[in-house]
Amino acid sequence: MNSKQTEAGIIPRKQNDELLKGVFEENFPDFLHFMYPNAKELFDFDRGFSFKDKELFKIIPDRERSDGKRIADLLAKVYLKDGTEKWIMVHTEIEGGNSSDFAHRIFQYHYRIRDKFDVPVETIAVFTGDRKQHRPCEYLEQGIHSSIHFKYLSYQIFDNSATELLDRDNIFAYIVVACQKALQEGKVPEEELAADRSTIVRALLASKKYDKERIMHFLFFLKSFIFIQDETINNKFDSYIYQVSGGAINMGVIEIIKKQEREAGMSAGIEKGRLEERAKLKVEKRVIALELKKMALPIADIAKATGLSIEEIEKL
After folding, report:
1. CA-to-CA distance for 219 and 251, rounded, in angstroms?
2. How far apart are CA 109 and CA 97, in angstroms?
3. pLDDT 10s digits, 89-143
4. How far apart are CA 192 and CA 256, in angstroms?
5. 26: which strand partners?
6. 269-300 pLDDT per residue, tens
7. CA dist 287 to 6, 190, 238, 252, 294, Å?
């Protein structure tokens, strides 16, 4: 992702792909209701759904992704009302994506999933760029007597106006508005972006459909996704959230929790690295011990040299 220039210098561009993937997953039922007007008749929501990240990674490895970090794609297993199983692939084309071979790539992903896992696949493309973004919805291939016509569901974030979206009682519609407004970063005053965030919050809190946890997670997404550098404006936003929620939601608390989660993740990563390093060292010691054993050196001496136990060396 690009960086953004500010008076304080260059700050890293927020990871929109990570944020979108997380918010898509958490609000997947609402996404289905948004994309399919007859979702209630189609999907058996009571049976739930599961995400197939590992399976998708097998189909779309990093080396094939346009920027090496395309992680907003989702593959989910859902159940239909008729009892059958269907896999839904959601590909999100982040911001300015205008790849000329987009439709071909989507076709490849579709048939690879179908071929590898032998399951019906429903493909959806979500385009999060500006109004000029190329948004193909089909792939055509014509031979002599053979032809392919692959159509998939596509949605571009400007297919609906912000007013239309805010009138829909669906949290995914508010996510789309956030995508629209995030494109204005650096183009409009931050006060205007702050007003947009507050407008989205009012629509969300008026819904009455979502519990406190869902609302808290969405608000953290919103504050991270529509990025504002000015801390004074951010503090006003936090105060606004606290007031309109009757003190039930405190953005400052949310950020502390998220920071703790990130730090816990970093600690876990460090510990994982230590364990991997120890395992690697153990393997190296065993290789050395085996070579010394082949040279007929006393096992006790090998144990001293490598730090391995006599039992471990005898098993080599």
Report:
1. 8
2. 17
3. 888 776 556 677 889 988 998 999 888 888 889 999 999 888 988 888 999 999 9
4. 26
5. none
6. 545 555 656 666 677 777 777 877 777 778 88
7. 53, 60, 58, 53, 11
Beta-strand relationship, 85-93 and 74-79: antiparallel
Burial class (CB in 10 A: 0-12, 13-18, 19+), 228: middle
Residues making up the chain, counted from first to last: 316
Q: Where are the domains of the chain?
A: 4-261, 262-314
The strand pairing partners of 140, in sequence order, are 149
For residue 274 the two structure tokens come to 């230590």
- Token pair in block for residue 205: 């809190």
Output Rg (C-alpha) for the chain, integer angstroms. 26
| SS3 category, 122 | strand
How many Å apart are CA 34 and CA 312, to the nearest integer? 60
Would you give the distance in Å from CA 80 to the centre of its chain?
A: 24
Q: What is the torsional sign of CA 182, 185, 189, 194?
A: positive
